[in-house]
Design brief:
Keywords: DNA-binding, Phosphoprotein, Transcription, Transcription regulation. It is built from eight helices and 13 strands. It is α/β, with parallel strands linked by helices. Strand 1, helix 1 and strand 2 form a beta-alpha-beta unit.
């Protein structure tokens, strides 16, 4: 079972998040103080940390720094961290990300969005996961192959990269700007908004049963695209 360390000093947030995350199948261990969190990190292994910045006896930054600096017998050297905080200024976000955190979400937040971000980060950090499946589509990122049913599908470099971006962000709405950031200039090709439209169309023609009614890469009107729930 995936183990999450929740470091937060607001008891209401703790209770609500524990209930939500347990319903998603996660084991949740909580700490309300910096000292308690550091003790837990020294003693136990976690798969992800949800970390408040402001704590009664210190700062979430100190906890992040300790984990990323591998000062805890390497138990949690590579643990992904999401900062959850009331601070919504750019400086706070940049500080956390520069320290090695994977994501940053401000209070109040939408619970389902947080769950989606957690699952997305866990997928990206699962080094043993090389085969991704959705419907009858199967992608083996170790071999670089794509199959639809029993038939192998051959994609261009950009089409393959675009497909991986979608599959590694299941359930997350990806804006066109985000997609452009992910595939920009890969393989030496210039990618603009019009080019992105062409590649999404080509990709759908290869992986969808009916490209006119896509069931894998779905359009979210006014926002972007999404794969999965």
């Amino acid at each position: 079972m995936t183990r999450i360390l929740l470091v937060e000093d607001d008891i209401n947030i703790i209770e609500n998040l524990k209930e939500l995350l347990k319903a998603e199948g996660f084991e949740v261990i909580t700490a309300m103080r910096q000292s308690q969190a550091l003790d837990l990190l020294a003693e136990q292994k976690f798969d992800l940390i949800l970390l408040d910045i402001s704590l009664p006896d210190g700062s979430g930054y100190a906890i992040c720094s300790a984990a990323k600096a591998s000062t805890l017998d390497n138990k949690n050297k590579d643990v992904p961290i999401i900062f959850i905080t009331a601070y919504d200024d750019e400086a706070s976000a940049v500080t956390g990300l520069d320290m090695g955190a994977e994501d940053y979400i401000t209070k109040p937040f939408r619970p389902r969005e947080l769950v989606s971000r957690i699952k997305n980060i866990l997928r990206r950090n699962d080094k043993t996961r090389s085969v991704i499946e959705i419907g009858d589509l199967r992608v083996d990122s170790m071999k670089g192959t794509v199959h639809k049913g029993d038939e192998e599908i051959f994609l261009s470099v950009l089409e393959y990269r675009l497909l991986l971006v979608f599959l590694n962000n299941k359930g997350v709405v990806l804006s066109r700007n985000k997609l452009l950031e992910e595939i920009w200039d890969i393989a030496g090709e210039f990618v603009n908004d019009n080019t992105l439209t062409v590649y999404i169309k080509r990709l759908r023609e290869k992986i969808e049963d009916d490209p006119q009614k896509p069931q894998i890469i779905k359009t979210v009107r006014g926002l972007g695209y999404k794969v999965g729930d």
